């Protein structure tokens, strides 16, 4: 049986189903990260002392990572635009770049974590390190999850382009929305954890 | 969105590049401002203000919320209401403790 509304919009919502689905998922993600930001505010306002992020964390590395993630967001949206123009070759280049930038982000994050562990700074060290590892760890898992989906779309999932190009383009739009959300979370995490 | 003309899509890609440049510049501004060592309140306000501009650019152009269906806006408005409540709850507790 054919799955309905994978390409054409549902008459009542005006959206194809996957798009409404991803927006509802992102709404739940806002609440997940919102709860953790809320916990950070509670802990920080209740603490007698709290370190400045820039004294403990590596700001230059995090700045590079911010640039990497922003660049990956633009390469993701460029890949979607290339598909809409019917240029699969260009799409693969932009999407491949997005995957690589995701990988660079994760490598830099691993270097950051390794440096912390070398200095015996673990989540159990204090509330600051606990929130740092929880928030950046959860965010990192989201980057990893996005990379897995991108790898699938570039690999076995790309067969769909030949049979159902519009449905494939919609899949790319949906992973794009998720990827931009992950970028958006980092845009707030970066100053909150590293610069204040 | 996929029904847009070739010219429209090409125009959109030019906008994406401009947004990218704005995001990169604002990132450097955020880092630069942190070296000014402003008072904590001013630093938080400014950092969140710049982050909000960056976030809005990503949401409006990369997530194309600038031209989205009404249902998506309805879902997001509901989300924002609950998100703001979640953020204000601990702040309310902080003011209580201050007396």
Write up what this structure looks like.
The complex is a heterodimer of chains A (196) and B (99). Chain A is mostly helical and 196 residues long. Chain A has a single domain, classed as Four Helix Bundle (Hemerythrin (Met), subunit A) (Up-down Bundle), CATH 1.20.120. In chain A, 79% of the residues lie in helices and 0% in strands. In chain A, helix 3 runs antiparallel to helix 4 and helix 3 runs antiparallel to helix 7. Chain A is elongated. Chain B is an all-alpha fold. The longest helix of chain B is centred in the N-terminal third of the chain and has 29 residues, at 6-34. In chain B, helix 1 (6-34) runs antiparallel to helix 2. Classes of the chains: A mainly alpha (196), B mainly alpha (99). At the A-B interface, helix 1, helix 3 and helix 7 of A face helix 1, helix 2 and helix 3 of B.
Strand content of chain B: under 5%
Task: Give helix and strand order of chain A, one letter per element, not per position.
Answer: HHHHHHH
* CATH homologous superfamily designation of chain A: Cytochrome c oxidase, subunit III, four-helix bundle
Please give the count of helices of chain A.
7
What overall geometry of chain A do the principal axes of the alpha carbons give?
elongated
- Overall pLDDT of chain A, averaged? 96
Structural class of chain B: mainly alpha
| Number of DSSP strand runs of chain A | 0
The pair of chains with the biggest contact is: A-B, 52 and 51 residues
What proportion of the residues of chain A is helical, as a percent range?
over 70%
Strand content of chain A: under 5%
Unreliable residue runs of chain B: none
First-to-last CA distance of chain A: 54 Å
- Which outline of chain B best applies? flat
> Are there runs of chain A of 5+ residues with pLDDT below 50, and where?
none
The main sheet of chain B comes to: none
CATH class identity of chain A: Mainly Alpha
Share of helix of chain B, binned: over 70%
Structural class of chain A: mainly alpha
What's the architecture of chain A in CATH terms? Up-down Bundle
